[in-house]
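Quick one:
INPUT:
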């Protein structure tokens, strides 16, 4: 798992098509700001510095170029930029993948398309009109582009994450290609997995590379290498013991019962939603496999006898 909001790097890209189309290369139109009291001027300047520090200069240039590329394509097609339309964005990334985004153009690589999509989403968010990247017009088309044109990823690129306003978008490589998983924000910060991840990324100072890593030096140092499955299993066992889960069992019995898969089984058993949503979240090919994870499943929740009026 890569800790990255998108496959964006700080190097120039050969297929940016940065000169395509007309228009300003500034990603955001600066609206006039109301006059602020004099004592807030310094804070305003500091806020601008923090905004600049949020991304590298190369990333900002790439985002500006990608927004210009998208804007120019919309103009040529007679389409409106606002409000954001998943259908329009889906057609745009299709054009990029097929080489039809610019006259006599060449197909963009999957990484370039993903970067362009991140730039479009970022620009819309800055305008206060977020783009729903989980919409099927975008997500399904992008999955098809990855499966058709994506090069086999290196071992260190098994997936990546993107933190959005409504939750977390996880892209993983599975047995049948790439798939996206949505992890929504919780009802409380204390139990929200997205808040927990944001806190971990901030405290561990992780900007790219493996997401979950070994902590050493009594919790003071975060290493560069990813955790393996055995280390994850040990963490789950240790946490379950410390939390007193299944206190009716001996410590040895509890260690036998809990492992890495306990996290998946816990989600499948606790989520009070339609079974098909759990199946999609866990990436199971069949509902029968999902039911194996549902330890407390109510087999009679759907009562066809009563539904038939009997």
């Amino acid at each position: 798992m890569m800790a990255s909001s998108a496959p964006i790097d700080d190097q120039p890209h050969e297929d940016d098509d940065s000169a395509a189309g007309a228009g300003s290369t500034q990603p955001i139109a600066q609206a006039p700001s109301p006059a602020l009291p004099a004592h807030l001027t310094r804070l305003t300047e500091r806020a601008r510095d923090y905004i600049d520090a949020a991304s590298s200069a190369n990333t900002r240039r790439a985002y500006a170029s990608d927004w210009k590329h998208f804007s120019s394509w919309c103009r040529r097609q007679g389409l409106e930029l606002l409000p954001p339309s998943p259908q329009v964005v889906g057609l745009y990334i299709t054009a990029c993948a097929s080489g039809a985004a610019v006259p006599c153009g060449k197909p963009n690589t999957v990484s370039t398309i993903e970067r362009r999509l991140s730039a479009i989403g970022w620009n819309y968010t800055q305008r206060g009109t977020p783009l729903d990247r989980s919409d099927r017009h975008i997500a399904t088309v992008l999955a098809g582009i990855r499966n058709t044109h994506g090069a086999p990823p290196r071992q260190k690129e098994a997936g990546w994450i993107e933190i959005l306003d409504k939750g977390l978008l996880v892209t993983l490589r599975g047995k049948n290609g790439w798939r996206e998983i949505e992890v929504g924000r919780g009802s409380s910060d204390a139990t929200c997995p997205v808040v927990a991840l944001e806190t971990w990324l901030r405290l561990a100072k992780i900007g790219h590379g493996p997401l979950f890593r070994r902590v050493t030096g009594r919790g003071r140092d975060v290493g560069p290498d990813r955790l393996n499955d055995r280390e994850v299993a040990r963490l789950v066992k240790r946490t379950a013991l410390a939390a007193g889960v299944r206190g009716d069992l001996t410590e040895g019995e509890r260690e036998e019962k809990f492992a890495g898969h306990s996290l998946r089984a816990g989600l499948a058993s606790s989520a009070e939603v339609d079974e098909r949503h759990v199946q999609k979240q866990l990436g199971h090919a069949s509902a029968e496999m999902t039911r194996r994870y549902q330890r407390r499943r109510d087999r009679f929740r759907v009562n066809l006898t009563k539904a038939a009026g009997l």
